[in-house]
Amino acid sequence: MKIDPEKCIACLECVDFCPMKCIAEQDDVVSIDQDECVDCGVCLHAGVCPTDALYMPEESMQYPRAIRAQFSDPGVWHPSTNQGGRGTEEMKTNDVTGRFRRGEYGMALEFGRPGTGARMSDLEKVLQALIRMDVELEHDNAVFAFLEEPLTGKVKPEFRNEKVLSAILEFKIREEQLEEIVRQLRPVLAEVDTVVSWGLASRFAEDGTLPVRARLEALGVPTRPNAKINMGMGRPIVEP
Ligand code: SF4
Ligand code: SF4
What we know:
It is built from six helices and twelve strands. The chain is an alpha+beta fold. It has two domains: 58 residues, Alpha-Beta Plaits; 142 residues, Alpha-Beta Plaits (2-Layer Sandwich). The strands form five sheets. It has a four-stranded antiparallel β-sheet with strand order 7-11-5-12, with helices on one face. A two-stranded antiparallel sheet has the order 1-4. Helix 4 runs antiparallel to helix 5. The chain starts with a strand and ends in a 22-residue tail after the last helix. The protein binds iron/sulfur cluster (2 copies). The site of one iron/sulfur cluster has 14 residues, from loops.
């Protein structure tokens, strides 16, 4: 996103709408830090600019920068997955996709939420660690379109410094791998230069309990259970 200096009257109405806090005034001139801006379009869509000074420049639609809007503006779709937002169906569709069976846990690592953003180099670091751990990655994910070497998780050099509002990596593990995966992932996540939310999808046991909670608590990992209730709109595409 850019600001047309000929039109801007420095009213600062747009500043508070930016989740990246990258709109700033200096010497009576308001501008956007292009390295920090993720092209989410929130400032523009808010419709607060009295002079229509905000605009999306041509270079925001061209690679490598185009990756920013694809991951940050839900109205811009990913060409590789034909989906908006972060470009993957995510674990919340499990009642339809049945990706996570009994004896398995689904895991999701959400980078950059809320309001922090993430560089592709951060994702690369974690993705490479996951590949070394030999977990089963969800490949139907827009992130994979920007890899140089899918087998090693190496991101194409031109995309490595691109910043997005949020991106997600999903994978599944066998239940017995839980402790080892947590032990290996923790130090990798500590090195990442953004916030990462770690989600785990588990089926309830036959008695209605969630045994995974006790295992996580024993590892010193606090849990905050939540559920998404599907009202039966989706038809399962796999047999139970
Ligand atoms: S496009 Fe998004 S990140 Fe960029 S200046 Fe506007 S609100 Fe901030
Ligand atoms: S709202 Fe428009 S005129 Fe006001 S500071 Fe932002 S870009 Fe400039």
